[in-house]
Predict the structure of N5-carboxyaminoimidazole ribonucleotide synthase.
Amino acid sequence: MTSPLPIGATIGILGGGQLGRMLSVAAARLGLRTHIFEPGAMPPAGDVAHKVTTASYDDSVALTAFGQSVDVITYEFENIPTSALDLLETLRPIHPGRTALATSQDRLTEKTFLQGLGLQTAPFADVSDMDTLTAALSEIGAPAILKTRRMGYDGKGQARIMAADDAASALTDIARAPAILEGFINFSHEVSVIGARGPDGSVACYDPGENVHEAGILRTTTVPARLNPTQRTDAVLIAARILNALDYVGVMGVELFVTPQGLIVNEIAPRVHNSGHWTQNGCAIDQFEQHIRAVAGWPLGDGSRHADVVMENLIGDDMDRLPALAKTDVSLHLYGKAEVKPGRKMGHVNRIVKS
Amino acid sequence: MTSPLPIGATIGILGGGQLGRMLSVAAARLGLRTHIFEPGAMPPAGDVAHKVTTASYDDSVALTAFGQSVDVITYEFENIPTSALDLLETLRPIHPGRTALATSQDRLTEKTFLQGLGLQTAPFADVSDMDTLTAALSEIGAPAILKTRRMGYDGKGQARIMAADDAASALTDIARAPAILEGFINFSHEVSVIGARGPDGSVACYDPGENVHEAGILRTTTVPARLNPTQRTDAVLIAARILNALDYVGVMGVELFVTPQGLIVNEIAPRVHNSGHWTQNGCAIDQFEQHIRAVAGWPLGDGSRHADVVMENLIGDDMDRLPALAKTDVSLHLYGKAEVKPGRKMGHVNRIVKS
């Protein structure tokens, strides 16, 4: 067990998007600095970071200089090239660790891991070509979803199969990448648990939030979620089991489907999570600070919540609503992205619901 | 009336201390950038600002480049050299404006202004030498406080006069600077109102907080303050009257003494104020964002409060308590200052009081 990072220490963050931006602000609140590594120019996190390195993940000189300049390394997205991680882990600790990354980077590995813990998942089968897809469809049945094993997010890398006839076009849609076929789940709603685990094994989870998606992208999260006390306890215990099994350090998002047969794990994300943004206005210690605390070896907040919150993402043209939103008493969190694009997450608002 | 600054615009901030740091974070939340101008090296605000200029206030080349690089100028402290303001105001709008600065920079001007508005202040008299001090003492009586007209903060530039015999040494203590003699006020407690005014004349005030000082430095602010409904209304109306009289744009702190004879204005600060830090965890829109909104011409938040909060400053060796504080569910706000010094504000904590 290492000692906590002192005031003034630097946390290296791979990725300079909005999550890196909000992690940087949280680090600053604790008197810590951040150094962002990001291939793209003018990253959103750059505005609030102590230092930014603009370089590619295959630039070993830049990666080495970055690694040597920081005290610990974390990341805001899970699809970091393995070669970069191989280099960086020779220099500094990386949290969350490689096991968590490897598990969540690959849907097949992830689902196999979750089932191994005795948790419920959607039925799934490995798909590598037309033959295995045909076999999978006969086992799982249609409708089903074909999902690439890697690099999927916000509904990307997915194709629906409503009937066996759709199989060939679905394979084309995902460019014949290694995939899994997932059976449809009949769920009433989706919730997510934002859990955290420290290097000392302490675990703290926030109250589950209820998520609504549109076109595969998170639209709103509402806390508290519609769950009965048993479901609420189950949700938190599921998250804790996953965190412990991975010997996890940091914040994780765990998406769960609520069904009459219990909670079914949809997917896990080894990082701060869009569905945890409500914690910025509902908790003394939000998910970003919680992640920084875990990674820096500081004590975790207990995850308690002092307000009900509705978080709404501002996506693409939602920014046209900004003048009206700015006139209401909601917390705006804008990411400083220069260009509005369809489907692009531009910011979010947290609305505190007075009880 | 100018149009609101667009996303990506830059706010120039004179001063890079903790107030500039928290203003920078608030600007980032609105998708705005900050450029800090600060003579000292490694300013706390630098960690979270888009750009930092390290230069002296008499460096006209640096000031000009700074002014030209930003869209609007504000500041985190009121003792900015006049020559710097003269130069900068030829380049960009400065908010709050010169009248507010001139009024609050000089205790004699400030008190005269407040009395001109019909507000109560402590009895005071202009002191420039031993003769005027003797005359002031015979008018106001002892005990009294001799305060320099300019550059006083956190109890600095003040000398108590318990009896007429102390007059000579008090003058020496303040280095015979131009001063005022202030009569003692018999007050039960001090409260402050954090008020804001937009360029359209809209005014919004936060609920008054109750302040406790130690050795001239703010120790805690508690909201709600102990005030009856009439006092609460009076406090807010006093702040609004001051804001309107100065045609003010931005956030102002107004310190008030609570006495049986009503509220007495102690002093005003033309900037975000230490006694408003509780708003970070008690309001959807905190004082820092409120100031940025005013300066940027965005609509103001309504100042409503969703939680009771106790704010405690971490001063000097209070930082020894950090390990214990980090184990409790309070919101830490550390300023990233490298060196702990006696009396130095190192951070603060906001404790949300569940109702």
Notes: Chain A is about 30% helix and 30% strand. The domain at 10-94 of chain A is CATH 3.40.50.20 (Rossmann fold).
